[in-house]
Design a protein that fits this description.
2 copies of one chain form a homodimer. Chain A is built from 21 helices and 15 strands. Chain A is α/β, with parallel strands linked by helices and 546 residues long. The longest helix of chain A is centred in the middle third of the chain and has 22 residues.
């Protein structure tokens, strides 16, 4: 497969075909919160710019030195961004250089990098993952760390630095851009929107790259399981999908595969669903289907679901307080040496409501929740395997109902997790095309010395050739959030819009998927064959979301 | 995808293109154990027959009534077998009928079936799973059950009954064939070799259907994870693969993806590996890689692995004895009401060796092992999630080594399971072609009133057109095994041959995969595109194994 994919030539949007003839003009002005504006005096006021092919005044073509870094979890298409950027600056001038920083932001801090050769870049064209450079999650927020980045870009004499990352990395990039301008560093900073979760988007950036591929990889698996469930006819499959904050992936995969039930965290939060109510909701489905002698089903669960349940939010907040060293009962709690003891102690001393919620958990999961805490002392609710928790609770509920009715309701659960296999898959034709174009656009920003922008395209739901290049000020994506108790300017993660087109389409259909099986099996992603199968991006993008 | 796959027309091997002109002749005589022969007086002596296109004497074309049933877990290609069979008997005579029994052997026992229409069959051509008829695991061994099958085939007036199943179902089919002949029932019995595990094979049947597709689906996932592991560079992925008895799937997927380590149950058994030695083996790999500052890796584990470890075999045997109601300590054991108590009691009372082995287990897994037993009272070792057990034990071992060395060896494990998504996937072009040809061959057996044969093809590693049709006597696949304490004639599951070509190829390469990453990423199965990607079956088959 790899040799064939490496030879794939993505279509280039018409507006950026001639890299020397792209002219940007204002699309619309950005409204920036004044407090945020105050943090970025060199970048504000600002506007979203749109690019078009037109005659520019002649610029002398000098070689460019551009740095690039991957940040955070891999997403399919990262290598294509690099290929697009490399081809662009080499086309601009054969002596241009692309410098890849290794193992994520750490490489940027320590100036650990390598100049990428034609062979390096050709070896990863249209392949998945971030294996060319590696990645990492180091945050660069402290002033001294930003200074280290400045040392690096000065040492490397960079015309531009391209940051391929998610919300946090692009937040950091906004601060780099401001600091560089402030200190008169000529290096432009360019952001590239990466995350399979699809929650890095705005009115101007319809979607982050990698989302399309990940959803296609997961939908293949879910579709296969749906077919298996309706072949074996004897088990419920609970499949957990990536997406801790937002449920875009679960929503898209539900639209692709038509499960009997797909839970959307944002809806659960809006409905103020409790864990118990959720279990009842699923058990009702099982019972209703059992009345038609159907003892199997397909249920999708976003990994972040439990954190969005109203009683779980309370429980978590209460546990975090309870475990603080300053809590009056702290010494008594520490004295509970056995995990079982500790659970009983906690159950006795938290609020009735939270106690009832925690008591629902199977003991070993509850004990695990109390044992493992993150470096800030918070309970690690993210460690809970939501699909296993729900399958276990539904089993107990169905058992109770069976006893009550004096008649067994058959219920067998299997669980699965669609995880890392979606992050480093071969990118879809959409993602290959999108990412190559993003990289090329980043190169054009470097040529035109544009700093503090995220590269993006409008009209992603139209044909590849007609995409409209955009320069979206990173600052325009920022808002304030409380993090670790402090107010911080960060890029907002965009949740599923319960008024948006994808969710509305889902709500219109999902009732009909409950009892009558309508499982869809999209099959493996195809790179050749009917255009209808190979070219279109996933539904969220086709609907023009964002 | 589905509409496109439904229109796919598989190539038909030349020898069976003209269904009226297939002539079978003896390929070789079968050597049958005399005790087994005594059970099948109407079927023995017998020979493997090979088919070729030749002029046959004219036979009057009468409509045929053929029954078909799925048995056991789904495998990709089952629907193609039905399509091949349907097309064949309809081509023979337009008034022929194909009767599908529902929900597996249960449908056969109770005569629950439906006649399949052209629309039914067209709706599932080249699709995965067994959703058209459902399946089940009911065994039909008792004389009275066989009598019920006889009632069914008489009531349905069947010319032939095609059993699409694994080793157990084809064993049952052999007994049906004998019983039918004995009682003068004219219904021919035809076996079709199904199982993704690939352990239903013989000198004449190179592979069961579904294996190729399942391995391709799993290799896609494993290849993606390999790319992710070498992108994130911070975790070991332990992936469990299907295959409780034989490790064919793990071996094939290892050849496709080149993990750092792939464990093969058959080799572990031959080497008399203990659980502790296995953990040391994996920890050595982790430590060696850590010396080169590599803190990630890819490890494949067949689900049956722990059952093949010498100390685990002893432990399991001992536990099964210990839990027998006749055991002298039974009443004391029952008195241990808490799971923890029971574990301590067991640890104190089993042999030192088994106690040491069980003590290695994390307590909650050990407790689970003692709590859950199958209907025969045996511990359910199959419930152990091998990949989680090993990841946990390796973590503990690495922790110990770090302490000893006074220097931390970083180790983070992620676990995954390649399971049911491989059973009901869209069949590969190989499996579509193989299964359609198998179904057509079964139809030819029905036309020629051949009973007690399994349909098969030789030369599966050659071009589709040149495959050689075979009729393999079901009886020739039987051997004696002890099951539930009694000697039973069953079809032997074929293990990985440690002298065979696939394993030799693996052994020649696997040392070079340990430290230097050579992960391969086969990508998603393609139905269109370069023939090199779409047509060839997996390596096990290409090597002419079997």
């Amino acid at each position: 497969m790899e040799p064939y994919r490496k030879n794939f030539q993505p279509i280039i949007p018409e507006a950026i075909q001639d890299i020397g003839r792209v002219v940007f003009e204002k699309k619309h002005e950005c409204t920036i919160d004044s407090e945020i504006g105050a943090l970025f005096p060199h970048l504000v006021p600002c506007s979203v710019l749109k690019g078009a092919s037109a005659t520019r005044e002649h610029v002398e073509k000098k070689p460019l030195r551009v740095g690039v870094v991957f940040s955070g979890g891999p997403a399919p298409g990262g290598h294509s961004v690099i290929a697009g950027l490399f081809d662009c600056i080499k086309k601009w001038h054969a002596d241009s250089s692309l410098i890849g920083f290794l193992n994520g932001p750490k490489g940027l801090l320590r100036n650990i990098c390598k100049e990428l050769s034609q062979i390096d870049v050709d070896s990863v064209r249209n392949t998945g993952g971030f294996s060319l450079l590696g990645s990492g999650r180091t945050k660069i927020e402290a002033q001294e760390d930003i200074q280290k980045v400045i040392d690096t870009v000065k040492a490397q004499n960079l015309d531009a630095l391209a940051v391929i990352g998610g919300d946090d990395s692009n937040t950091d990039a906004a601060f780099f851009a401001e600091a560089f301008l402030q200190q008169g560093i000529r290096t432009c900073v360019i952001g590239l929107p990466k995350t399979i979760d699809g929650d890095l988007q705005s009115d101007d950036i319809p979607i982050s790259f990698g989302f399309d591929t990940a959803c296609k990889v997961y939908s293949e698996i879910i579709g296969n399981i749906g077919r298996d469930v309706s072949s074996a006819k004897k088990y419920y499959s609970f499949i957990r999908l990536m997406g801790r904050v937002a449920s875009h992936i679960t929503l898209e995969c539900a639209l692709q595969t038509h499960p009997n039930l797909a839970l959307i965290s944002e809806e659960a939060a809006q409905q103020e669903l409790t864990l118990k109510a959720l279990v009842v909701k699923i058990a009702d489905l099982v019972e209703e289907r059992a009345k038609s002698r159907i003892h199997y089903g397909l249920i999708l669960v976003p990994e972040g679901l439990v954190e969005h349940l109203v009683d779980m939010k309370h429980l978590i907040a209460e546990l975090n307080e309870f475990f603080a060293p300053t809590h009056p009962l702290a010494s008594l709690l520490v004295a509970c040496s056995k995990p079982g003891e500790r659970l009983d102690f906690v159950l006795d001393h938290i609020s009735e409501r939270s106690s009832a919620c925690l008591a629902l958990f199977p003991r070993h999961i509850a004990e695990q929740l109390l044992q493992e805490r993150d470096p800030h002392g918070n309970v690690q609710v993210s460690r809970i395997e939501t699909e296993r928790l729900l399958a276990g609770l539904v089993e107990a509920e169905i058992h109770l109902r069976s006893q009550k009715a004096g008649k067994e309701i058959p219920f067998v659960a299997q669980t699965g997790f669609c995880g890392y296999e979606g992050r480093s898959a071969f990118p879809s034709i959409f993602d290959c095309t999108y990412c190559y174009a993003l990289g090329r656009l980043a190169g054009i920003f470097a040529i035109q010395k544009m700093t503090g922008f995220m590269a993006g395209f409008a009209r992603l739901h139209e044909s590849f050739a007609s995409w409209e290049p955009l320069a979206v000020p990173l600052v325009s994506l920022l808002h304030f959030e409380r993090r670790k108790g402090a107010k911080k300017a960060v890029i907002q993660r965009v949740l599923v819009d319960l008024q948006g087109k994808p969710f509305s389409l889902f709500k219109n259909q999902c009732a009909s998927w409950r009892l009558t099986d309508s499982y869809q099996q999209p099959g493996p992603m195809q790179f050749w064959g009917p255009e209808e199968l190979t070219l279109p991006p996933c539904l969220t993008i086709r609907l023009g979301q964002g």
